[in-house]
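Batch job 17 of 40 flagged for manual review because the log was empty.
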Amino acid sequence: MSVTGDANQSHDVDGIIEAVKQFQKEGEKLPSERVLADRLNVKRHQLRKALAVLRESGDLHQVQPRRVPAPHPRYSEELVRITNPLEVLEMRMLIEPGLARLASLRASALEIKQIREAAKTPENANSGAVDLSFHLAIVSAARNHLAGEFYKMLRQVGVDSRVRVARLTPTTCPKRIAQRDQEHLLIAEAIAQRDPEAAEAAMRAHLQSVQQQINERSSAYAA
């Protein structure tokens, strides 16, 4: 398939969008950006604008980089051995407020909806899974793939049984879950309002609350 016409004809973004949609209607798999630009006879910067519009509208999925799944990085065993929950929290406090800031600037309407939904813990849901889902939704909306991989590794180390603090109160304590949901909702609302300062501050306050919980459990365990 190719776009034909006078050599001097301008290929505006709307025209490129229609051409890409035609590819999809014909069941063709979109080639690489370079190949697609050549086939459509358009500039790559124009093609990028068109693809961005299609992704934002939900007509084109984000292209995920090819990589071999590695749910358990080889170095995680060593990291688990040398660290502890408070160090994990310190790293989260360095990383996550910045990611919340980025999410407030970059999140799509769909991503904001997902963050808001993940901020609330459904009845009888797994508390830890809901918490992780909320934070990963923010990381994804920040659209920094490298930071996202660092964060997943950090959380993996943090939940490893060998670095967990003995919990003297149930993880499903309704009071704590309600408090956490409220903290999550404040973060979600700041992101939805496109307020980077508020999003960053709300995330930091939330993690400080988590840090306090860890300190209390650590002190009780040591007593």
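Reviewer: the log was empty due to a logging misconfiguration, but the result itself is present. The chain has two domains: 13-57, 76-222. Unflagging and moving on to job 18.
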